[in-house]
Structure formats: structure tokens, C-alpha cells
Amino acid sequence: MSRIDLNLLTALDALLSERSVTKAAERMKISVSAMSRTLTRLRATTGDRLLLQAGRTLVLTPYAERLSQRIPALAREAEAVLSRAEYRFDPATLEQRFTLRAGEGFIDLLGAALVERIHRAAPGVQLRFAPKSDWNAQPLREGLIDLEIGAVKVSAPEVRARRLFRDRYVGVCRKGHPLLGKKQITIERWLAYGHVMVSRTGDAENPVDAALELGERGRALPIVVASYTSAMQLVRQSDLLAVVPQSCLGNSHLPNYAAEQGLQSFVLPVETPEFNVSAIWHPRLDHDPAQCWLRAQVMAVCAALYPE
Predict the structure, then answer these.
(1) What is the helix (H) or strand (E) element at residue 57, kind and residue range?
(2) 238-261, pLDDT tens digit by residue?
(3) What φ, ψ does residue 73 adopt, rounded to 5°?
(4) Cβ distance 280 to 150 under 8 Å?
(5) Torsion angle (degrees, nearest 10) of CA 281, 119, 296, 301
(6) pLDDT of 6 above 80
(7) Gap between the Cα atoms of 141 and 138, Å rounded
(8) Residue 263: helix, strand or coil by DSSP?
(9) Do 146 and 98 contact (CB within 8 A), yes or no?
(10) What is the 3 state secondary structure string of 128-161?
(11) How many alpha carbons lie under 13 Å from residue 8 in its C-beta half-sphere?
């Protein structure tokens, strides 16, 4: 296509519509002499005179008359195709499935609000939540996952991350648990009970156990589960204790989520740092309009439900 200049398409549209070199030049914001030279090029390219003098006006040749029915739509289509992608993005017409990887707690506490927000703006969008078996950046690199929700736990220098909200660990037990008596919750009393450990790999992978190991102590861990929601279900039916992110207890949309399940939280007798819950994606999706829109929806929902 080396001999095709798409600028000629826009110029031809102006000439056929205005039927005047002067008016076409004004519309294209170029000089009259430049538009005359463009008309000469168009005549050479098409092999047709296109516009002919008829007294003081120009008239279209039969071939130009036929072109005048097609050129306006072609010019608009060419301009739309070659314009910046974000200018033509419309979520209302989007037909796409996004794959997110998030823990069960995120799905339980934010999933409905996120789906409602997205469906309201883009009814043709489907969200698929993939199992969060571990934190591995490879699915992001391969395009199997569009967006990861959680903490960045692996060295993947190329991934992008945007904080959604700050979180911290708290203790959780059933209502009426003996630990919640009038006595202070000391580390000795806390360690006297069995604990549910949450680990997707089966190994200790949280700062609570890391802090205990520094003090040469450890929790009695009769059971290990893969999700915080599973731990909370076990705790509500037993005297076991668990450590979960505070975000799992509820949010502004579900303020009594944990209490309605018969659970009560307490401050841990060991110090653990706060951590970020982030949206994580691969940089190849940085400027894709649909992906940018999806990330904006997730961020907006998190900001509304977990205001800082």
C-alpha cells in the first residue's frame, strides 16, 4: 500500500461535499493552492477528473457522484480506526470476559458490589474468578489472568501494582469463647487454644507465625485450610482460634458480616505489620482501554467499601 495516502480520503470527502476547492481548503485548514495540488493528485490516483468547471461552480463527474455516496462513511471509519483507542472505548457496548484471581474473602465481601457496578455500566461483561491456589506471576505473564487481587508476594519486577486498601491481621473466635472473658488476652492465654492455620501451601506463610518464631514460641495447629473463609467457618463451630485480615470481618456494605456468622474479633497479642491489598497486572495491559476501565471499577468499589 505504499502508493496509498489516507490523507487523500479526507481531502476527497471535503471536495465532494463542498464542491469547492476554496471551501474544502477552509474545512481542511490548508491553503487553496495546497488543496488544488491535492485535487491534482486525486485525479491522478483515481484516473477521473472528479470535479469539472461549470460556469462559476464545480460539478461532480458521474464517477465522483458514485463516490460521494461512499466516501463520507469510509472517511469516518478510517479516522475511527486510526484514532487513539481510549477515544472510541464505550463500556456499554463491551462484550468481554475478564479473569480475576482473588481470595474467597474478596469474592464474598466485594464480589456482589463489583458485579453490580460493572453490570450497570457494561451489561455485556462477564467476570470469571479463577482459583487462587498460590501467588504466581506466570498466569499474568501468559495472559491467563487479567487482574490479581492480593498482596505481592513474589519477585516479579515487571508487574504493576496499585494499592486498593490497607489491611492488618486480627484474631477471630466464636461469640462466647472462653478467651473473651474479663481477663486480658495475653499471649499465654491465646496460645493455650488450638488454632486454624490458613495456608495455600501447607507451610506457615504469615507474619504472625514469623513473629512467634522470633520469640521461640509457636501455635498449636491441629488443622490447616486454604482460605480465610474456611477458617472462619471452623472457628464459629469450635473453640479453635484463627488469624484473618480485618477486611474479612466486613465493610461499609456488609458491616456486620462476621458478627452475623457468630464471630467476634480481638486484637492479637503479637505485633504484626499492616499490609497492602493491591490490584496487580502485567504491563502489557497498561494502556488497553477495557483493562484500564476494569481496574478503575475494582479500585472504585474498594475505595467505597474500605475507605481509608
Answers:
(1) strand 57-60
(2) 999 999 999 999 999 899 999 999
(3) -65, -40
(4) yes
(5) -100
(6) no
(7) 5
(8) strand
(9) yes
(10) EEECCCCCCCHHHHHCCCCEEEECCCCCCCCCEE
(11) 13
